[in-house]
Write a structure and sequence with these properties.
By secondary structure, the protein is mainly beta. It has helices spanning about 75-80, 120-125; strands at about 10-15, 20-25, 45-50, 50-55, 60-65, 70, 85-90, 100-105, 110-115, 130-135, 140-145, 150-155, 160, 175-180. The radius of gyration is 17 Å and the shape is elongated.
């Protein structure tokens, strides 16, 4: 069984209203369009695992990382402009983490292979920005600002030649963090 195949199932329950009120929808895997289950989702409980939630359908728009806990008002707690429209379960990963980051699109410019969190790309690698990457092992969060702040993007194993193609136009990433089993 592969490292990413050792998944612990996650469970998240979405509620139409703040403070866990209104109709609920229980989810244990990816959901690209929650409108077929609820008119909106404004609060949720993560009972197990980790999830990314998105403010647009099809895993687009602003992304928010959610670990076990209660989120009574997603809009104000996370600064969401709209309610949750789609979600993706993050598989549990055991093993090493490896990602190669590139300064330019299409794997151009400086490159560095990472196996640990990086709180500031500029300070550690003297790179002005990260415009593409290859995630070889593990699941990562990339942040637009140093110190794991600002908008984030979930990266699972694969090649990412151009972040603009992923709906992240003008986005530059300055810090990266592994998603570990401590969710």
């Amino acid at each position: 069984m592969s490292n990413t195949g050792m998944n612990m199932r996650g469970k998240i329950t979405f509620y139409e209203e703040k403070n866990f009120q209104g109709r609920s929808y229980e989810c244990m895997n990816d959901c690209s369009d929650m409108s077929s289950y609820q008119s909106r989702s404004q609060s949720c409980r993560v009972e197990s695992g980790c999830f990314m939630v998105y403010d647009r359908n099809n895993y687009m728009g602003n992304q928010y990382f959610m670990r076990r806990g209660e989120y009574s008002d997603c809009m104000s707690m996370m600064g969401m402009r709209d309610c949750i429209k789609s979600c993706r379960m993050i598989p549990m990963h055991r093993g090493q983490y490896r990602m190669k980051i590139y300064e330019k699109e299409n794997f151009g410019g400086q490159s560095h292979e990472m196996m640990e969190d990086c709180d500031n790309v500029m300070d550690r690698y003297r790179m002005n920005e990260c415009q593409s990457c290859n995630v070889m092992d593990g699941h990562w969060l990339m942040y637009e600002q140093p110190q794991f702040r600002g908008k984030m993007m979930y990266m699972r194993p694969g090649e990412y030649r151009n972040f603009r193609d992923m709906g992240m136009s003008g986005q530059r990433f300055m810090s990266m963090r592994r998603i570990t089993d401590s969710c």
